[in-house]
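Section 3.1 - Work completed
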Amino acid sequence: MTNTGPTRKSIADLIEVMAALRTPVTGCPWDLEQTFATIVPYTLEEAYEVADAIHRNDMIDLKEELGDLLLQVVYHARMAEEEGAFDFDDVADAITRKMLRRHPHVFGTPEERAAGPQKGSWDRIKAEEKKEKAAERKAAGLPEEAPNESEVLAGVPAAMPALIRAVKLQDKAAKVGFDWPSLAPVFDKMREELREFEEVALGADPRATDHSEQPQDQPAAADPADKNRIEEEFGDLLFVMANVARHLKLDPEAALRSANEKFRRRFAHIEARLAESGRSPSDSDLQEMDALWDEARASDKRAKGKG
């Protein structure tokens, strides 16, 4: 239940709390030691925890996780304020102005509102913003944002989760016509990349052709050059799989999260069944665990059938 009493706290209170935590001598030693760089992992983690709460449709957790994510914004803004760069109000002002500017069909002139959403308007406004930002950076004596960046592919952060970034890069390229016209050639490319990956992976693994000398439970050591080639081909395969997802309008991150959860659930079934006889997975073998996995899979299918 939402707290609506006299002790209800606001964003102003949170900003004051963060200022107190970052105050030298009287503040928190751990908080005082932090920098933008050391806080980044926490910022990313909190964003993922928000996504997880949404995936589980857990509104209680979502409220808490959104608060944790908001704290990250307040934290970064406080550190920027200490450097004289900007403060939280500047952040709020900038994003509010951006939303107003990018939605002329909602907040614009009577004529713009009457015309409704216009094709290409979003990209045009973003291009204007980019020019304004470049001028602002120049006036402040800052270098170009990304001098070696592709014009078309600009604005897709390198720190973004790789699968999501792949889809966004492909989307941007597709807008200028660099895309397959249908799903069929994407599947052809997927099969090509899979063949190439299989060739380098099996070619670097002595167990693929000789089972006599390499124990099955001990991974073969790959030559560094082979490992680089394998990693490159694996990356190509993942990139084309992201393209398959894009053409099918699927979220590859959501699909993989679902697969991860399915694996967790089925392995928990294996553990539970083995526990019935007082054992753990380390007391079992692959054949038995495979059979229990099939049990869990059959149970999943029955549950879907009932749904």
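Second construct:
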Amino acid sequence: MIENHEIDFRILGEEMQCVEIELDPQETAIGESGSFMMMDREIQMETIFGDGTQQTGGFLGKLMSAGKRVLTGESLFMTAFTNAGNGKKKVTFAAPYPGKIIPMDLYRHNGKIICQKDAFLCAAKGVSVGIEFQRKLGTGLFGGEGFIMQKLEGDGMAFVHAGGHVIERELQAGEMIKIDTGCIVAFTQTVDYDIQFVGGIKNTIFGGEGLFFATLQGPGKVWIQSLPISRLASRIIAYGGIGGRRREEGSILGGLGNLLDGDGV
């Protein structure tokens, strides 16, 4: 069994954040593909199959580890950054879009956190990144973004990324909140997660919020994001309009407004 490497870190920035990880000699951090930003000269970079927890096992173990990552929409490979020098060295990982980086000490959360499938950014070596299937039929059929989720297991530090502002809620036993499935970032393993139908003809046809929402019931901790990447992407597409032309939301000038601000028609 690979022990989790203990790492020091600091989070830099406001809206476009990055996390700087300080590694002692021979310590290793693992990063999601495409998250690397910069590193000191003595740090060695190695592409690994899966999440780094099965590297001492056989090919089948590595293949299963990598296959779990594919099911959550991630790459087959991750990158390991090891300090091959004598002193402390730093490696930095950047957030993929505006939002916040959330540090999570898995030891303090009983060794497991469940998060959205695209939330993981980087972690100490030894943290396992797998899949968490929801057991309930309704959740599986209608969960949307929340159906197949990631689980982070181990006793080290892991870092996840969320869009917009992040709210942390500590739910008491029996306390429940209803939430858009895309706004869930992560929750502890003691939280009960399910899907409910919005209900009502007007809500269904004209509500614009989807047919289902998630229910999270305590006890446990929940992390919530104000701007899911899917919502951001849909707004950008809608604003561009057909053929890339602007849609003037709320403008009484319409095409004339485009002429006045120099965009043409």
